[in-house]
Amino acid sequence: MDVDPHEIPNGYSVDKHAALASTIAAPGALPDPGAPLRVMACHETEDAHCVGWLHHQLGQGNNLALRLRMLSCANAGELRLRGAQHQTFEATLPREAAHATTTPSGNGYTEMPPWQPRRRNEETALDQ
Fold first, then answer.
1. CB atoms within 10 A of CB 115
2. Spans of all domains in the chain
3. In this structure, are residues 31 and 65 in contact, taking their beta carbons and an 8 Å threshold?
4. CB-based contacts of 92: which residues, under 8 Å, 6+ apart?
5. pLDDT tens digits, one per residue of 35-78
6. pTM
7. CA torsion 95→99→100→101, rounded to 10°?
8. Using the 8-state DSSP alphabet, how is residue 102 labeled?
């Protein structure tokens, strides 16, 4: 699957893309209690997580910290993928980063606070 960085809304950033590596857990690694859960933000909207990233990390990525966090996500069953997905992070890298444009700020990931039990009817960013 080819990646065209020019089709990413708000431009492509080599730095943001490289920072996404920090959101990918070692498969099956036990979560560090109290450590923040780093997640990939959606590139199409500002207030959501990337559904493709969630799909990968909950599936073959075997991100245990994310799986634990998703136990309290009220709308986890409503997540839907659009289109074909890359099998690995490396497959998302554009063939020619030299033609990429950069954006002024940000690091490519959002940080979730350490997991805490959720109160009934309490919404989180994952529920939106």
1. 17
2. 5-115
3. yes
4. 3, 17, 20, 86
5. 888 888 887 777 888 888 899 899 888 899 999 989 999 888 88
6. 0.63
7. 180
8. -
Q: At residue 23, what is the residue type?
A: T
Give how far Cα 6 sits from Cα of 47, 81, 87, Å: 22, 21, 21
Residue 52 identity (one-letter amino acid):
G
Six-digit token pair at 100?
């990429």
Which H/E stretch holds residue 39? strand 37-40
Closest CA to 110 of 13, 19, 25: 19
Tokens of 111: 């940080």
Q: Return d(Cα 96, Cα 90) in angstroms, integer.
A: 13
- Residue listed under structure tokens 């009220």: 74
Reported as type and span, the H/E element at residue 16 is helix 14-19
